[in-house]
Here is the input.
Amino acid sequence: MHNAKKATQGFSMQPMQLFDLAFRQNEWLAQRQSVISSNVANANTPGYKAREVESFDDAMQTAMPMATTNSQHLGAAPYGPIRNGDSGGKAEVLVSGNDVNLEKEFFNSGEVMRSYTLNTQILKTFDRMLQTVTKV
Here is the structure.
């Protein structure tokens, strides 16, 4: 028993980084959905230019850059999310003079919903694991 107490003295409890990351992603998803909603609402506004938020990966890289501790570790994936039907080019310019592409905006909205659902499911699973481990 004395050895177990001595072994835990040097151990410090780290904050739950997964919950912080999920919270940040949910904030980002809410901001992205707001921008998408604004784009859709202004689809017929003459001269309106569609807006998009910075990708979550880019925002997190800026906020918390990842440090490489070993040259043999894998880096971040060199690709972003797959976007069906997104040619990567400019949206067509409509007669009203704006560049809102409703198909792209609805696709983006669905992507936000899928990301939010995945985030929620991961958190629920992690919470169940924590509850299982902490039951005495």
